[in-house]
Amino acid sequence: MAASGSGGSRADNGYSSQQPRRRRGPGALATAYLVIYNVVMTAGWLVIAVGLVRAYLAKGSYHSLYYSIEKPLKFFQTGALLEEYLLIAKYLPGIVPSSVVLTAFQVMSRVFLTWAVTHSVKEVQTEDSVLLFVVAWTITEIIRYSFYTFSLLNHLPYLIKWARYTLFIVLYPMGVSGELLTIYAALPFVRQSGLYSISLPNKYNFSFDYYTFLILVMISYIPIFPQLYFHMLHQRRKVLSHTEEHKKSE
Predict the structure, then answer these.
(1) Which one of 179, 210, 211, 229 is the catalytic residue?
(2) Which of 104, 121, 186, 191 has the maximum number of C-beta atoms within 10 A of its C-beta?
């Protein structure tokens, strides 16, 4: 997710005091690869969105819709790990404003929710909170990957830019609420089953309590989420106000 203003200070440290250097964007081959990646990811999340709608229309209920999109959700959310290295760490900082550490936290937390909580604790898969974060992720990712695609092509429609820097105001709290409620719902099942926990004594002289770990994960949202949210609010003011000024000058 991202610290407000931190990206600018780090970038300034790499500049010459007399002749600022611009970050290089990806070359032609890398750009082509990144465009293909983002198009595929956009299409993947559209498949998830369509799957949710079709399942809802077929069932006439929003309960337990997770099963209708479980496989593509796991595939495309896990595919974001590739983005964490190739897109965020190497290329996208030169194209769109982003904080590597906090965006990496966002990616990792979603992969963690997908596999280590929702997949592993099957009892929570029927919880409405799962649908809450899945819907928030789906809308967010369709917009985000579309934003990256058009940014790479240097042809970004204002509507996508506006959606990227506006809809998060509702979608981020919605997604985080769903994630936290799902982890909370998983806690009693984790405690009862001892899932992923390691007890002493053992030959490694090491113990691990997954139940406590999940509580710590929930607590970690307290410092991280506000940083992401206020960073995005800062970027919204910066990006959209710059766009409005540009329109007035034309």
Answers:
(1) 179
(2) 186
